[in-house]
């Protein structure tokens, strides 16, 4: 903060955070940190398994490895800073730091939107054209700059503006049409055709396996896109700080934690690769043998 004549130049924002220092919020903060550690270990393990096991070197697992990498970067962009602010009892962030956080967050969010669309198309090709799958999917400014949020998210930052932000809101909406609605339309079309293909299967076991393969992906899509659309596609007048914080937690913390759990627990190849990896460890060889 600097003084120039009678004016005060503010050089930072103040993040009000997600929690206060009540016993309930301390408990919730502990849960968030456990989720963060689960997300780090789960996504890191998924990347390691896909790299070291040659049986997982297929387009499906190539997409899964990128999803895990994006989730690692996404949650690492938000949670460590939020935890440090909470533990230190202050939440100031420079204008440059806030801008960089917005840049990394929106870049990763947009990349994950399109990646989920590619994953939906991958499942459609695998189910409807299994013989051609390997060919088709081959790798070819105001007084006190307080942000009532736990990170620099665009709608929360826009609330600080003293001027008319309708143009920026329109630009955000247009971007969301490209980054949310377009990929979501591809996903919806892919899964509609998957459903038609699955219903035509004569084998009940085959139908069950196909539904099991796609259900985990649909869970991720519903959580991720639903929360992002609520945050970025509603008019500014309908936003409330408490609701925005809860909704943002879904695609910044909960989804990155669930992705490796869902894909690994429902996938025989991944669990097999995990047993193989643990079998190579001297500490686990005896127990697995």
UniProtKB/TrEMBL annotation:
Membrane-topology descriptor: Multi-pass membrane protein
TM helices/strands, residue ranges: 26-52, 59-79, 170-198, 210-234, 246-265
Subcellular location: Cell membrane
Alphabetically ordered keywords of this record: Cell membrane, G-protein coupled receptor, Membrane, Olfaction, Receptor, Sensory transduction, Transducer, Transmembrane, Transmembrane helix
GO molecular function: G protein-coupled receptor activity; olfactory receptor activity
Keyword Membrane appears in the UniProt entry: yes
Name by which UniProt lists this protein: G-protein coupled receptors family 1 profile domain-containing protein
Pfam families named in the record: 7tm_1, 7tm_4
Gene3D superfamilies per record: Rhodopsin 7-helix transmembrane proteins
InterPro entries reported in the protein's UniProt record: GPCR_Rhodpsn (IPR000276), GPCR_Rhodpsn_7TM (IPR017452), Olfact_rcpt (IPR000725)
Domain G-protein coupled receptors family 1 profile: 42-263
Residues spanning the signal sequence: none
Species: Myodes glareolus (Bank vole)
Recorded GO CC terms: plasma membrane
Residue ranges that the Swiss-Prot or TrEMBL entry lists as coiled coil: none
């Amino acid at each position: 903060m600097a003084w120039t004549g009678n004016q005060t130049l503010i050089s930072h924002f103040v993040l009000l955070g997600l929690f206060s220092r009540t016993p309930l919020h301390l408990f919730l903060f502990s849960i968030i940190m456990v989720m963060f550690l689960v997300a780090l270990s789960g996504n890191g393990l998924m990347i390691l398994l896909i790299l070291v096991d040659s049986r997982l070197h297929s387009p499906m697992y190539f997409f899964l490895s990128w999803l895990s990498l994006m989730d690692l970067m996404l949650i690492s962009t938000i949670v460590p800073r939020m935890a440090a602010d909470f533990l230190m009892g202050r939440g100031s962030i420079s204008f440059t730091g806030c801008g960089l956080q917005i840049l990394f967050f929106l870049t990763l969010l947009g990349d994950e939107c399109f990646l989920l669309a590619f994953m939906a198309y991958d499942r459609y090709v695998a189910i409807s054209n299994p013989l051609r799958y390997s060919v088709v999917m081959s790798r070819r400014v105001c007084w006190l700059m307080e942000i009532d949020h736990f990170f620099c998210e665009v709608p929360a930052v826009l609330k600080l503006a003293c001027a008319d932000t309708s143009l920026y809101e329109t630009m955000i909406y247009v971007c969301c049409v490209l980054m949310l609605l377009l990929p979501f339309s591809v996903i919806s079309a892919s899964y509609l055709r998957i459903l038609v293909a699955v219903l035509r299967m004569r084998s009940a076991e085959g139908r069950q396996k196909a539904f099991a393969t796609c259900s985990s992906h649909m869970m991720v899509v519903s959580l991720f896109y639903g929360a992002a659309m609520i945050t970025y596609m509603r008019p500014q007048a309908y936003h409330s700080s408490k609701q925005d914080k809860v909704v943002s937690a879904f695609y910044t913390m909960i989804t990155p934690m669930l992705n490796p759990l869902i894909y690994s627990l429902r996938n025989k190849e991944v669990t097999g690769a995990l047993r193989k990896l643990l079998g190579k460890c001297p500490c686990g060889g005896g127990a697995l043998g």
